[in-house]
Structure formats: C-alpha cells, structure tokens
Amino acid sequence: MMILIIDFGSQYSQLIARRVRESRVYCQIEPCNIEIDKIKAIDPKGIILSGGPMSIYDKNSSKVDERIFDLNIPILGIC
Fold first, then answer.
1. Which residues of 5-30 are buried (b: 16+ CB within 10 A; e: fewer)?
2. For residue 41, which of 48, 60, 67, 74 sits 20 to 30 Å off, Cα-Cα?
3. DSSP state of 30
4. Inter-residue contact 66 to 74 (CB < 8 Å)
5. pTM
6. Which segments within 37-74 are labelled E, that is strand?
7. What stretches of 1-79 show up as alpha helix (H) in DSSP?
8. C-beta separation of 10 from 51 below 8 A
9. Are 47 and 35 in contact (CB under 8 A)?
C-alpha cells in the first residue's frame, strides 16, 4: 500500500510522512504541481493534501489538478 502526500509548502509534510511510515505504510511526498499522469503511475491507495502558508482564496495560490478527485481514492486535506 502507498499513500501519496501532495505538498503545498507545509512545514509539516515531513512530519506527516514520518507518522504514516511509523504506521508501516509506505508514503511519498510530491510537490503540488505533480501531473495527473504521474499520480496515476504511482497508483496511491490514498492522498494527503498537506497545506501551505497561502490561503486558497489568494489569487496566486497553488492548485492541484482537480482530476485527482475523479480517481476514486480517499483524499485527506491537512492544513
């Protein structure tokens, strides 16, 4: 099993990854601009969105490809 952590610049991404690994689950951290094809190739069983310092309402805030919501896998957002 593999969990994908998508990092939006959070200072906690490494801590989240460590906690996931302590649960004996493999995980991988990728930047928020990861392409949907790469996500599909990784074939995660779940995704954790690790928030960053910008508000989602900021005009220039980072965005993830919305097609991840069509992958039919669990997604957890942590600010």
1. bbbbebebbeebbeebeeeeeebebb
2. 60
3. E
4. no
5. 0.89
6. 46-50
7. 13-22, 36-42
8. yes
9. no
